[in-house]
Amino acid sequence: MHDARALIEMGAEAVRRLARRGYSLDLSELESLQSRRNQNIRSADELRAESKRTASEVQQTAKQGGDISKLKERARELKDQIRDIETGQVQVEEQLRDLLLSIPNLPDDAAPDGDSEDFAVEIRRVGTPPAFPFEPKDHVDLGEAIGILDFARATKLSGPRFAVSRGAGAALERALATLFLDLHTRRHGYVEHAVPYLVTRKTMTGTGQLPKFEEDLFKTGVADRELFLIPTAEVPLTNLYADEIIPPAELPLALTAHTPCFRSEAGSYGRDTRGLIRQHQFAKVEIVQMVDPADTDATLETMVGHAEACLKELGLAYRVVKLAAGDTGFSAQLTYDIEVWIPSQNTYREISSVSNFGTFQARRANIRTRGEDGKPKLVATLNGSGLPVGRTLAALLEQCQQQDGSIVLPESLFPYLGFRRISADGKPEA
Hints:
Elements: H1 4-10, H2 12-19, H3 27-63, H4 69-102, E1 121-126, H5 139-145, E2 149-150, H6 151-158, E3 164-165, H7 168-187, E4 191-192, E5 198-199, H8 201-206, E6 219-222, E7 225-229, H9 234-239, E8 244-245, E9 253-262, E10 281-291, H10 296-314, E11 318-322, E12 334-342, E13 347-356, H11 360-365, E14 367-370, E15 376-378, E16 380-388, H12 389-399, E17 407-408, H13 414-417, E18 421-422, E19 428-429
Parallel strand pairs: 4-9, 8-14
Antiparallel strand pairs: 1-11, 2-3, 5-7, 6-7, 9-10, 10-16, 11-12, 12-13, 13-16, 14-15, 17-18, 18-19
Helix pairs in contact: 1-3, 3-4, 5-12, 7-12
């Protein structure tokens, strides 16, 4: 959420930057609502002051035995006028808030121009995509053939875009999540959290999922309680500090959590409906940092490195790209995507997004610290996937497949699994 005054002061610069992401800012509407708001505040203050003076005059005149009828009539008129202005003020405040909540974050000028993944700029490639002396299978065929993935029974339970893993497949998912958490907590300095998977509308609004993306969220409720299933642990982790002032000495805060994530993927039907790439429910390890706004650039680069470390531990080939301004998420200023090699598709596919939100989320959620002068100021927030379990599993199966259908696993997983290979009939082998 933006500060209306800041956008108005930026003027054409705000319009320019938002246009890079395909958003047309109506400055005149914003200025009109802000002006009406300010005028209502001034008028209400003036009327309250007059009402206070009139009440005093009523008391003094009554003590002196004078006629107070006209003064009392004026007092009633003032009361009605104040009520009308306050009612109008509520309406203007709601309109202004709704407008501000709908305006996306200002993209960083470091983001390249463009409105799709085609305009992303490649930063680096790490590892060499495996070359197979056979036609590589996709993870669905592999997983079902060796009996560690079952999409048909998942569909029977919940409909399309769900998966069941079993045996060595379920163990592999658990091992991946634990490896990622160990990397982030033991090597990267994050504090692990166990958080709720159901959150309030206010919580979803704080990180920018609402109101714009309500159609993409799963919602539930009991009686008059409305709750949303989290689309990512970013939501509860960031909002842990909503409406709080974090002592400067506690910054930076580095938080991580392994949670299920729930997304309806509204509007994406027809894309990646097969397999683990785009599901309604998936597990993910998320990393979140809250820092002083001056430290965001360095922190973003560091967090990209933290997500990359997970892929390096697994020996998976990947690349890092910088997203174009028009392809950057609603709340983000600048985003790096990490894309892992998927042999069956002969291309790199997104496995992690790491984003700098600046103070955008902190303003919405009212997360602050104190400046050198001791006055409250907004923190900056950043987050990234580190990593999603399902997409990592898909890449792992495909990059590590053997001609006989078996899977040779990275050595880094052995301490968590106790086996190094999944045979062609799905059995763990040391």
